[in-house]
Amino acid sequence: MQEEIVSSVRKIILDALKEDMVEGDITTEVLIPKDDMSLRKAKIVANSEGVLCGIEVTKEVFRLIFPEIKFIQKLKDGDTFCKKDTLLEIEGPPWAILKGERVALNFLQRLCGIATLTRKFVELALPYGVKILDTRKTTPNLRLLEKYAVKVGGGFNHRYNLTSGILIKDNHIKVVGSVKEAVEKAIKNAPPFSRVEVEVTSLKEAEEVAELGVDVIMLDNLNLEEMEKAIKIIREKSQKTLIEVSGGVTLENVEGIARLRPDFISVGKITHSAPSLDISLKIL
C-alpha cells in the first residue's frame, strides 16, 4: 500500500482506536504497568487461505500506539497465503500489542476478505477478457480502503464518488422525463472529458439508448438471454459504446455472463458482502 494511502486513512485508524479505547484499555492497564518497556514478540496468523490486503494499515495501527514498534514482513499486499501462514511478526511492549490487536485485525480481516472475494470473481472472468468492477456500495468512510482492496484482488474501480462520472439511473430518468432527454442534457452539460453512462433494464431501453451515442451502457438485472440479445444490439449500433453488466452477479453465474463478452461486470457483493477472513494474533 502506498504511503499516501496510509496517510489519507490515518484519521480513520485514529478514530477506530478511539472507538475501541474511549478512556483506555482497562484490562491491559490493570495487568501491565504503563512503564513496562520489556519487548515481546507476536505474530499475526491466517486461519484460512486468501489474498493479503491491508498489511500497511495493520502496521500503522500499532505505530500510532507505539511508534518504535518493529515488524518482520515476508508477504506484501496481493500475495496469496495459506492456512497457518504467518502474515506479520511484531516486536514491542506487550501493552502496545494488546491495545492494537483488535483494531488491527478488524482492518486486516475486512480488507483481506474483499481482496480474496474479488480475486475469485476476477479469475472466473479473466479468460473472456472481461474486467470486474466494484460499485459505491461500500462501508461509510471506508471506501478508499475497500476500493484499494478490490484493486489488490485484481478488480477495477468504478466511480469513487458522485463526481467521478455521469451515471444516469432509473430515478434520474423518472425525474427528467425520458432517457433521451436525460442523455441529451448530460452530454450538453457534462464537464469536459466526462464519460456518460446509462443504466437500462430492458431490451427496449437498450436499443433506444444504443442510438444516443453514450459512452457506456449498463445492463442491469437482465437474464442471460436478454443480455445476449442486448449486447448484440448495442454492438451492431456502435462499436465504440462500452457495455457493463450489473445486478445479481454471483460466483455461480459470473462466468456465464463473461462468456457473452461485455466489457465490464460490476459486482456490489465484493464490497458490501465480502466475508471477513479468519485471522488471529498470538503473543509468543
Automatic annotation (TrEMBL):
Residues 114-282 form the Quinolinate phosphoribosyl transferase C-terminal domain. Its EC number is 2.4.2.19. Pathway: Cofactor biosynthesis; NAD(+) biosynthesis; nicotinate D-ribonucleotide from quinolinate: step 1/1. It is an enzyme of class 2 (transferase). GO terms for cellular component: cytoplasm. Involved in the catabolism of quinolinic acid (QA). Belongs to the NadC/ModD family. Hexamer formed by 3 homodimers. This is Probable nicotinate-nucleotide pyrophosphorylase [carboxylating]. It comes from Aerophobetes bacterium.
